[in-house]
Amino acid sequence: SSFLKEQGYQTYIIQFNHAHTGSGTILVENENQIIVLRNTFPRREVRVTQFISGPVFTNNSVVWGNKVLSGPLNYQITGRTPFTKFPFATVGNDWELPHKMLTKKQLKAYEAMAVAVGKRLALAGWKGLFGLDVIVEEKTGKIVSAAQLTFHKIPHTPWTIGYFPRGPKPTRKMLATLETLGKEKNAIFIQ
Hints:
Blueprint: H1 2-6, E1 12-16, E2 25-28, H2 31-40, E3 46-50, E4 56-58, E5 60-64, E6 67-70, E7 74-78, E8 90-94, H3 97-101, H4 104-123, E9 128-131, E10 134-136, E11 143-144, E12 148-153, E13 160-166, H5 172-184, E14 187-190
Parallel strand pairs: 13-14
Antiparallel strand pairs: 1-2, 1-3, 4-7, 4-10, 5-6, 5-9, 7-8, 10-11, 12-13
């Protein structure tokens, strides 16, 4: 958590590597939460991102060959009781609301982002469905997509392969962090 504070994050999000529809997403606001999580899940992998306040949107797209078909954008309805006790858990979707909440420019920006992610996956030889979750930052209206990094074990070896399918163009600081994570995870490379 000290690294995150150095990056200027006062509050941030932790997402467990095996969870669904937001049930493994936790808003971290203080050091005690980190201590409890470390003691409860000492070896569980997580993704950590800066907390960004704003509505969440998603879509599902498909990659086949070198083609990408981006599905319709929808608003994620989250954290509604009595349907869930988790504040970030998705309990439904609304396909009409994005067209009421977002400008044409924002809708086009999202579409471009979804197609760009699909093309990047296609270049890596990946085929199938993918979802792209974004937040529209309340203060700026900017569409923000969190970086995604996973490590995959190579069977019968101590090695892994890192996969960075989406995120911003890495800065020098991000590259240094990726290198450190790669060494910690015994990655032979990060794609």
